[in-house]
Specification:
This protein is 23% helix and 26% strand. It is of the alpha+beta class. The mean pLDDT is 97. Strands 3-4-2-1-12-11 form a six-stranded mixed β-sheet. It has a six-stranded mixed β-sheet with strand order 5-6-7-8-10-9. The protein has a single domain, classed as Deoxyribonuclease I, Chain A.
Length: 247
């Protein structure tokens, strides 16, 4: 099984890159964030052959999507938790596993809304666990989980996305859902494993970034993970696609 997540920062600007990426990687599940488009604004080329495609956007802001390879799951029902505001979360249940694409608020304009969303996400993960379901939660969490997830030149203890409160809530999410940070599990000591770079001063080329994009998986699934690269070389979004491979 292969699961990919990518904050495309506008699907209309990067639809060709998206199609090329899917054709090259052939993920079973593709989670997108910040599509910044209503359904009628999605380029026709994005209806990728061999996939069921679900777009959940409201215009030039936010928005998520899920794409499931038909060979992996011929029929898929998509849904949204009750706390879905600003088109930020969509899920698809396949047998006993829920695949979720999420775009956590940045928090710069409304920090309280970000914290409230994360609390709802914690309750959501805990509920799925209590119901005996496995979860693969993918997306832009807008939190660098630890100091290791930020380049030393970018570490700012008072910066939103690096605050102790946010990091504590991230750990609470992992505990509540019995989730494992697949990327960090496979790269426990990597200090250059980032997925977002500020779009100036060649930050991406110099790999001076943050890790904001995650594949979080229920522990039984995480034990099967074999790779989780961040593809810094792909696309022109300020985020890189992250692809988790499971045996």
């Amino acid at each position: 099984m292969k699961v990919a997540t990518w904050n495309v920062n506008g699907i209309r600007a990067r639809h060709e890159q998206f199609v090329q990426f899917v054709a090259s990687e052939q993920p079973d599940v593709v989670c997108l964030q910040e599509i910044k488009a209503k359904l009628e604004q999605i380029p026709q080329t994005c209806s990728v052959e061999g996939y069921t495609c679900y777009w959940h956007g409201a215009g030039g802001y936010s928005g998520v999507a899920l794409h499931i390879r038909r060979a992996f799951a011929p029929e898929v029902a998509y849904a949204h938790p009750d706390f879905d505001l600003e088109t930020r979360i969509v899920q698809a249940q396949i047998e006993d596993t829920v695949f979720t694409s999420v775009y956590v608020p940045n928090g710069g304009k409304d920090f309280d809304a970000k914290i409230a969303f994360i609390h709802s996400l914690i309750a959501y993960a805990a509920d799925l666990r209590a119901r005996g379901l496995k979860l693969v939660l993918c997306g832009d969490m807008n939190i660098a989980r630890s100091e290791l997830d930020v380049h030393p030149k970018e570490r700012k203890p008072r910066a939103i996305g690096q605050l102790p409160m946010e990091r504590e809530l991230f750990e609470e999410l992992l505990r509540a859902g019995n989730l494992v940070d697949v990327g960090r599990m496979l790269h426990p000591d990597a200090n250059d494993y980032f997925s977002w770079w500020a779009p100036w001063r060649q930050m991406r080329e110099r790999n001076i970034g943050w890790r904001l994009d995650y594949v979080l998986a229920s522990e039984p699934l995480a034990k099967r993970a074999t790779a989780c690269p961040s593809h810094r070389e792909i696309g022109t979004s300020d985020h890189a696609p992250v692809v988790a491979h499971f045996s």
